[in-house]
Amino acid sequence: MSAKxxxxxxxxxxxVTGKSPYITLSEQYGFExxxxxxxxxxxxGTREFRDxxxxxxxxxxxxxxxxxxxxxxxxxxxxxxxxxxxxxxxxCHSAAIASYLQKYIVYRKRKVFYHESGQAAQFxxxxxxxxxxxxxxxGIEGLKEDIVAVLDSKKIPYSTSAIYRSVPNGFTxxxxxxxxxxxxxxxxxxxxxxxxxxxxxxxxxxxxxxGEATASALRENGFEVNIEAPxxxxxxxxxxxxxxxxxxx
Length: 249
What we know:
Layout: E1 7-10, H1 21-29, E2 32-35, E3 39-43, H2 46-50, E4 61-64, H3 67-80, E5 89-92, H4 95-100, E6 112-114, H5 120-129, E7 135-140, H6 146-153, E8 158-168, H7 173-177, E9 181-184, H8 187-196, E10 206-210, H9 212-220, E11 227-229, H10 237-247
Parallel strand pairs: 1-2, 1-9, 4-5, 4-7, 5-6, 7-8, 9-10, 10-11
Antiparallel strand pairs: 3-8
């Protein structure tokens, strides 16, 4: 493997089972891997949600762009004592997100929609095809979804609402500087890095990321993205990482 990569920090919680594709790669290519979430997620309280004056049941469809949004949405609806009607439709950014819905609803094809590619452009086209819906877009506090501009362009009715927030986890610059590669999965991870380590300089450290929004957050802060996923060739972060390691042996 590349001499540059001896230690990797994955900005996610450590796997509960002790098994992970990152651990498998570390054993195969001889690098050290650690796990540390850069931020925690908190569901907004019912009063905070009600202050936004959005009625979920006024909508005919809900858009989910992550499994995190699904978890916090159904936690919030439980606290609000809301029951989703049987004819509510769900539009999911990927097949994996759609499959995750089965944790909370009886999965029926006629009410769960997604595009197999998982690409933003195809998902946006799917939403525009169903232009008679009134969409509800639950998301994280402070983030404006790209979907909003797409719906605005065709004057399709929708509401957005923050249902959860990101809270940076504390860490020191010494914890960060000791790694050759940092892997990010959310813009919130980038925000946490800047919050905890405002004088951070990338220098020779490699940065990897998953998702277009995460890549944009890194570049907007002046950082170089060295490894990026997903892509048609590398649908997962570990696939992109392994390709990089092989290429730089």
